[in-house]
Amino acid sequence: MPETSSRSSRFWETVSEHVTAKVELARTRKGDDRRSVIVYLRDLEAVARRQCEFRIRSKSSRPGVTSSATTTNSRRRTRPTRDHAILPGHETAARRTGTPNLTYMSRSGGVWEYVREILPREQRMPDPLVRKLQHYGPLSDADRLWLAESLGVRRQIAARTDIIMEGEDPRAVNVVLDGWACRYKQLADGRRQIVSMLLPGDPCDPHIFLLDRMDHAVCALTPVTLAQIRGSVIQELTARSQNLDYVLHRETLANAAIQREWAVSLGCRTGIERLAHLFCELFARLSAVGLTKGDTCAFPITQNDLADALGQTSVHINRTLQDLRSAGLITLRSRQLTLHDPEGLARLAHFDPAYLHFTMEPNEPDPMRS
Fold first, then answer.
1. E strand spans, the chain
2. Which of 184, 209, 247, 256 is deepest in the core (most CB within 10 A)?
3. What does DSSP assign to residue 203?
4. Which are the contacts of 137, defined by CB distance < 8 A and separation ≥ 6?
5. Is the pLDDT of residue 265 over 90?
6. What does the DSSP assignment read for 50-85?
7. Under a CB-based contact definition with an 8 Å cutoff, are residues 133 and 248 in contact?
8. Residue 221: exposed, middle, or buried by beta-carbon count in 10 A (0-12, 13-18, 19+)?
9. Where in the chain are the domains?
10. Is the model's pLDDT at 79 over the cut of 50?
11. How far apart are CA 44 and CA 142, in angstroms?
12. d(CA 10, CA 88)
């Protein structure tokens, strides 16, 4: 028993050292305090897992810990239970940084009890970027929160407005959180080619900041909610998390596969096959981030947009839509697309979703939901 007590004491000393170090880091990094909190939470989780054979004693059984286990904000009060402990020595750190006391649960929740204390519920819900990346590989609780916290201030972009223009310096990665956008090239005479569609959850290339200038423009096709991740933050994320490095590279490779499929459509597929294939692809991508309902999804873009994406005229697009309706395959009305025969539409388009590389199921249930 004394040996167990000694080992448990060493465990708590190690955890306290980690917390203290990260609190000091948070104090020195202006504007990045919240991200630094996530950094030391990750380190704390690693320590706790390495020491998982030590039973975390309850507050009442640990000597030297007083009953003042409340946070600086009385509304955020932690009530320790048998398997719920307050980190020793963190009360002073909490006063220095203005953060609440960190809690750790030995059996369930872990450091994420702390997250539930400091983050409003709406900030804990996974955004479309997190939902999409979970299809490319496993993300831990820390990965998901860290990624969500890295998104900068949300911006509202009006429809038909350029988000970034060709020739500009891409110092940050734009992430579409709501609405539809596109990448496009435009010739001097005004002719436009849409080279890809950007849906909720899509980053405008996670590594675009490595280039000196944009070789294309990005435009909002509808009102868009946008966030940015600075290039330095992307590098920090990928350096600290192998999971994030993996899924972001996989997302880049999946985008390259989509571009190849678009090239096949322009070079080989007939007009009706092109449109059918685009419908199948966009529906699959929207479904991946939870934006479909049954066989219906929002489809807010115009026939002119479809024409510029498929290398056709708007008149040709209109006729093709009528053909698809007459065949009983789709209905496009009031900016809503319904696939009446998804399998038949896929056969017509020669659509194989394997090129989207959605090989992982999202991690469910989401422990960030309370």
1. 84-86, 103-105, 155-157, 161-164, 172-178, 181-186, 192-198, 217-220, 224-230, 292-293, 296-298, 330-333, 336-339
2. 247
3. B
4. 243, 246, 247, 250, 360
5. yes
6. HTTTS----GGGSTT--S--B-SSTTSB----TTEE
7. yes
8. buried
9. 2-118, 263-356
10. no
11. 11
12. 12
Token pair, residue 68, equals: 């003042």
- Single-letter amino acid, residue 329: L
Q: For residue 357, is pLDDT > 90?
A: yes
Q: Which three-class secondary structure state does DSSP give residue 25? A: helix
* CATH among 3.40.50.11810, 1.10.10.10, 1.10.287.3510, 1.25.40.10 for 263-356: 1.10.10.10
pLDDT, position 165: 94
pTM over 0.70: no
User: What is the rounded average pLDDT of the residues 6-32?
Assistant: 53
Span of 47-51, 331-335, 344-348 with lowest mean pLDDT: 47-51
Query: Which of 163, 254, 263 is CA-nearest to residue 214?
Result: 163
Write out pLDDT tens, residues 281-291: 999 999 999 99
